[in-house]
Amino acid sequence: MDRRDFLKKSGMVLGGLGVSTVIHPSILKAMNIKPAKGSTFYDAEHVVILMQENRSFDHCFGTLRGVRGFMDKYAFRKPDGKSVFFQKDKAGKTYAPFNLDIKNTRATWMSSLPHSWTNQQNALNKGKYDQWLLAKRSGIKEYQDLPLTLGFYNRNDLPFYYQLADAFTVFDQYFCSSLTGTTPNRLFHWTGTIRAEKSGDVQAHVINDTVDYSRNVHWKTFPEMLEENDISWRIYQNEISLSKGMGGEQEAYLSNFTDNPIEWFSQFNVKFSPKHHEFVQKKITELKDKLSKNPDNKERLEKELRYYEEDLKNFDPKNWEKLSQKEKNLHNKAFTINSGDPDFWSLEEIDPVNGEKMYLPKGDILFQFRKDVNEGKLPAVSWLVAPERFSDHPSSQWYGAWFISEVMNILTKNPEVWKKTIFILNYDENDGYFDHVVPFLPPNNPQQQPDIHGEDGAEYVDFKQKYFSTEKLYSSEKMEGPVGLGYRVPMVMASPWTTGGYVNSEVSDHTSVLQFLEHFLNKKKNKNLHVENISDWRREVCGDLTSAFNQEKSKNLKLDFLQEKVFIESINAAKEKPVPNNFVALSDAEQNAQSQYFPKQEKGLKPSNPLPYHYEVNFNSKGIDMQNHTEKATPVMVYNRKKLNEDKDFLFPYTMFKKQGFNHAVSSENGYDWEVFGPNGFYRNFEGDSAPKVEVKLTQKSNGDVEITFTSAAEIIALENAYTKQTQKIDPAKTPKVLIPASKIGGWYDLKISTGNHNWIFAGRAETGKVSSTDPHWA
Q1: Which domain holds residue 770?
Q2: What is the DSSP string of 377-421?
Q3: Cβ contact 658:616 at 8 Å
Q4: pLDDT digits (tens, 9 = 90+) for 566-596
Q5: How far apart are CA 101 and CA 110, in angstroms?
Q6: What is the CATH number of the domain that holds 481?
Q7: Do residues 613 and 630 make contact, with C-beta atoms less than 8 angstroms apart?
Q8: How many domains does the chain have?
Q9: Of 465, 483, 476, 532, nearest to 196 (Cα)?
Q10: Which of these three, 494, 518, 548, is where a domain ends?
Q11: Within a domain: residue 357?
Q12: Which residue, of 152, 234, 602, 700, has the fewest CB within 10 Å?
C-alpha cells in the first residue's frame, strides 16, 4: 500500500475514535512484545516523549475504570456544601459533567475554551473551586452559555485512548506544571522552570506572549545538558513554526504548532533555518516593493523592513560557519525536520466531505523519526512534536489518535526496538476543561510561610515581587496566585515494563519527566545530571515516575483491535451534527452522585502501583497533627470549612518534607469543620459542635492494616466501616484499640467515627511496598 492509500484507508483522520469495540493493532503488537528475560527498565536504550495538547484528565478519562474519576467519593465540596462536580453558571443554574458525544454532535469542531493564567486562577478561585462555568465560557458567541467546560468523552468516544490506558499504565495524579496555558507548561517540560532564576523577584513567564521569537529567553534547557554529557537526543517535528512562507492549512497540517518552545531559546539559533532565510529574503523584496508603491505606510513598512534586514544580517549562512560544533549540534538536533522527504511541505486534496474540501499531508509527517528507528539511529532521548491537526488540541478536530498509533507502529515494527523503549504520552495543559481534583499547591500556612522574594517565591506570583515594578508587563500577567501545580491531565507510560493496565497515583507533573530522565540516565550512563531549574518544593513533591514500573508479572488484557476502515467520513460528518445538548440544569435535589444526570464511570478495579507514602493526619486537643514517616515529601491541602465563604484563612497548603511533622492549631470550642486532602484519595474530615472529649488516632501498619486508638473513655463511640458496611459500638474504656484488617482489600480504609455531635472520617490507603488495587468503592 502506498503512503497516500495508507493514510486514507488506515483511518488516519479518525484514528479509532468513535469505534468502541475495536482498537489499533499497534497496541496489540506492543503488548505482546515481552521484555528480555530478567531485564528492568534500566535496560531500556530509548525514551520517546510525545506531549500532546490541551485536555484535562476528567475530560478524557473521568469515566475510565479504576481511576480517580467521577466515582471519587470524597471529591471536594464547594462553599455551598455541594460536590465540586456541580458547577453554577452566571444565571445561577447548576450543571454536572455531561458526555460530549464525539460522533453524534459537533463537539470536536467547537474549538477550545479559555486557558490562560487569569482564567485558570479564576477557576481555582483561591481553592474554592466554584467558578469553572464563569471562568471558562467559550469565546464563540453562540456557545458562551453552554457548560462546555464540564463536557467529557468516554470509551465510546475515545476507544483508542481508553484501551491504551487499559494495556499500559495510566497516571491519575499527574498534574500539569502550572495554572497557565501551553507555553509555560512546555517550558517546565523541557527546562523545569518558567523563570530565568529560582527567585520570586525574577519574572514568571505565566502567559504565552512573553516568550516567543521576538522575546527570546536563554536559561539552561535539558537538551543542552544531554549535549554536554554526550547523550544522544533529538526533537522531531515535520517542520518548525518559525516564519517560512507556509499557508494556513499547510501550517495546521505540517508545522509544529509552536509546540517546540526550544525555538525561543537564543542558544539554539532557530533563525539559521534555511527555509526562514529564504522567507526573509522574499519578505525584504516584497517590503521594498510596497514602499515604492505605497508611501502612506512608510513608517510601518520601514520598521518591518529593518527588522528583517537585521535578521538577514545576523543569521546569514556565513555566520552559521562561525558557530561552534556544539552550537550547530543544538540547532540541528532541536529542529530535526523531515526535509529528507521531498513532499514534507505538501498537502494533497482528498475526497470532499459534506461538499467541503479536505486535505492530508502528502508526505510522511514522521519521516525522519521513522527513518532513524528503521536504521538503528534512534537517540537515547527523543521528543516528538505533532502538527496542530494531530496534536489533540480542541482547536482542531481530534485526529491525534492516528499520530500516536503510528508512533507505536514505528517503534514496534522491529520488536527488538520496542523491547528497549519507554514511550511517554502526556498533555501540556487542560485547555478550559474541568477536572475535579484540586491541585496541590506550594506550602503557605502559619508554619511554612513562603519568602515571595526568594526561592520559595518562585512558586508564586505576587505583586510585591520586584519584577512587577521593573518589567513592562501585559495586563493578563497582573494577577496573583500560585504558579502550580496545575490541573490534572492525561498521562500514559507504554513500555515492556508498564503493561497490565496499572494505575499510578503518585503525585507528578511535567518536571517528573525530567526527573525520570535524570534518574534513568545517571544510573545507565554513570552521569550526574541534575536540573537546577526545578524548585526544591517541586522536586520533593513530584515523583520521578519510577514507581510506575512493574516488578511483578501481570497478565495482558484481552482486547479487540481496530480494523482498517475509512473513518474520515465519520469524524468530518460530525461537523454538521448538532451542538451538544445533553446537559440539564439541576434542581437542588438532583445535585448528588445518585442523580440520573450524574456521569457514570465504568465499574471495576485495576492493579495499582505501590506508592512511596506513609503519613498520618489526626485530630487532637491541640489541632490537626500531621506526621510524615518516610523520605518522600507529601503535600496536603487543609481546609477550614467554617471559613469557606470568607476571602481568606480557609485554605492552608502544607508539605510534609522528609520525616517532617506539623500541628495545625485549631480552636474547636465554638464548633469546627476541617477537611484534609492528600495523594491517592487520602481524606480526613473532622467536624463537631464543641471541643471533643474523645481523641482518636489512626496509624498504619506495615502489612496494610490500620489501627485506631481512643485516648478517652468519656463516651460510647460508633465506628462505621464503609467497605464492609458494618457499624460497631465501642466503649473506649474496654476497647482502647481497634484493628481494621484493611490489608484484605489492598490497604484501603474508609471509616466514620461518631460520638455525640462529633464526626470524623478517615479514608485512604495504607502502603505496603507491594502492588495493590485501586479503590474498592469503584468495584
Answers
A1: 611-778
A2: ---SEEEEE--GGGTT-TTS-S-HHHHHHHHHHHHHSSHHHHTTE
A3: no
A4: 334 455 556 667 787 888 999 999 999 999 9
A5: 13
A6: 3.40.720.10
A7: yes
A8: 2
A9: 532
A10: 548
A11: no
A12: 602
Q: What angle do CA 430, 543, 619 make, to 5 degrees?
A: 95
Do 8 and 92 belong to one domain?
yes
Residue type, 493: M
At residue 397, the pLDDT reads 76
Q: What is the DSSP letter of 477?
A: G
pTM of structure: 0.95
- pLDDT, greater one: 239 or 556: 239
618 and 517 within one domain: no
454 is a domain residue? yes
pLDDT band for position 433 (cuts 50, 70, 90): very high
504 within domain boundaries:
yes
Residues ≥6 apart with Cβ < 8 Å to 369? 236, 382, 384, 407, 410
Report the pLDDT value the prediction gives residue 16, as an integer from 0 to 100: 45
- Same-domain check for residues 512 and 632: no
CB 334 within 8 A of CB 223: yes
Q: Using the 8-state DSSP alphabet, how is residue 581 labeled? A: -
DSSP E strands, 695-769: 696-700, 706-710, 717-721, 726-730, 737-740, 748-755, 758-765
Are 62 and 188 contained in the same domain?
yes
How far apart, in whole angstroms, are the C-alpha atoms of residue 114 and residue 94? 20
CA–CA distance, 720 with 718 (Å, rounded to integer): 6
Name the amino acid, one letter, at 760.
Answer: W
Q: Are residues 621 and 523 in the same domain?
A: no
Burial call 457-477: b when 16+ CB within 10 Å, e when fewer: bbbbbbeebebbeeeeeeeeb
Same domain, 504 and 643: no
Q: Is the pLDDT of residue 251 over 60?
A: yes
- pLDDT of res. 554: 47
pLDDT tens string 309-326: 999 999 999 999 999 999
Of residues 189, 104, 87, the one with CA closest to residue 433: 87
Domain boundary among 548, 575, 597: 548
511 domain-assigned: yes
